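In the laboratory, one determines a bound structure by crystallizing the protein with its ligand and collecting diffraction data. In a computational setting the workflow is compressed into a single prediction: the sequence and the ligand go in, and a structural description comes out. We illustrate the idea with adenosine monophosphate.
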Amino acid sequence: MLRGQMMDQPLLISSLIAHADRCHPDTEIVSRTVEGPIHRYTYADAHARSRALAQALARLGVKPGDRVGTLAWNGYRHLELYYAVSGMGAVIHTINPRLFPDQLAYIVNHAEDAYVFFDLTFAPLVEKLAPHCKGVRGWVAMTDAAHLPDIPGVKPLCHEALLAAERGDYEWPRLDEWTASGLCYTSGTTGNPKGVLYSHRSTVLHAYAASLPDVFGASARETILPVVPMFHVNAWGVPYLATMNGCKLVFPGPALDGKSLYELFEAEKVTLTAGVPTVWLGLLAHMKANALRFSTLRRAVVGGSAAPPAMIRQFDEEFGVDCQHAWGMTEMSPLGTLLTLKGKHERLPADERFALRCKQGRTIYGVEMKIVDGGGRALPHDGKAFGDLHVRGPWITSGYFKGEGGNVLRDGWFPTGDVATIDADGFMQITDRSKDVIKSGGEWISSIDLENIAVAHPAIAEAAVIGVAHPKWDERPVVVAVKKPGAEVTRAALLAFYEGKVAKWMIPDDVIFVAELPHTATGKLSKLTLREQFRDYRLPSA
Ligand code: AMP
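The predicted complex, in structure-token form:
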């Protein structure tokens, strides 16, 4: 082998914030805070404070490889933790505060968090958790001395006091790029949550890929507001791609309702945003009710669960925002696909172009995908055949933290648990989760397709389709739906709405109207809970 002669310069997370400081020192980071006021500073400030925070962590005894937990909204102090903790060689463990307290305690203990930083909102949660997390050496309130909370049994440290005690002349260590940098636990629909351990290398490579023109198209001219939480797979990489490219960052803090988001979008002239479908339902409903328009927002990346076609259309046609569908998972850092059309697609008839835009997106360089049948045989990429989706790439996990779940790879590929089609242009479409697919008389019915039709009905706010046991067909689909406030639709009318939209045998057997659907801690429909709830449901057709 003739070895190349390029420098051995490791890909490090600290280099991202150092770059933002050098080349975009005056670019702003704006945060809505838990304490109330809007906070505003620059990349130069963020870098200086991240270095001081790393110094403070070292003084607290945090060592390379130690885990530091966060229970926090999207905000500037959380960003400083992203850089300080990873930058010093420790591991930032972003915890989803929406999980149940016993799951949270399990995660903190499993991760062996040395310290946990928390936003004031979560002080009551810390009070509950602390007695069950004896390994945590300190709980740090992400606030100033004036707002330091009283928590019975816990003497919280103060984020601002820790910073104020440091000179900030900290130099980032030159780490091996394979050093662990971050830890996220998957919401885990079965069994205990499992940890995914990212590295500096995987995080920086993911940030490069996420920045590409056909992915986030991140440039220094963009103002990005990540609605997706920093505790949900690193806010899809936005905190890293923003420093890499010098984008202005706007953090919504705890205020994720439609009105608060809309006001922040407008006040800060946001051009690009990202989040799960449920938050957009709230925002779009607020805008429609008040006849509001976006004046600067051009693109919204929607993922985490399937974006209903009706939402993609509404963004586009009513609000002039390009809604870009994306797919990924915790195990993938998370990005696997994002939807941008190719030049040749501009000539397609409108309905075909729209059908393409409803797919989960086009494969991003760095991620390889294949679909396989039950026997593990590869299926064609023709946009029709569907099978279990397997992936591999430099930002995809090779196994779970502490070896949980054993060897998860199949011939070097990670099985995603999703069922999908892939077409010749690399557009992937999820047809279901492997366990949500409805198996009726030997045929597979996509629950997602049936849900999309239900939510396209003007009277339906949200819908889930599950398979219910049937003596003859094994399973038959049932729609569990929530009506829009004040809207009316009967069971028969909703079932009739399916006619002509899917094959007759795919039309659900029944409709159950409910006041509310169960969601997981990451805002996805919890079909596991629904299936439990309706396990003994007797179909009229049974
Ligand atoms: P998580 O690790 O919590 O982000 O969950 C990952 C899972 O969410 C994926 O395996 C998919 O089942 C689902 N998911 C993510 N994005 C989408 C999408 N755009 N459409 C459908 N399902 C999605």
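The domain at 435-533 is CATH 3.30.300.30 (GMP Synthetase; Chain A, domain 3). Keep in mind that any predicted model is a hypothesis to be tested, not a measurement.
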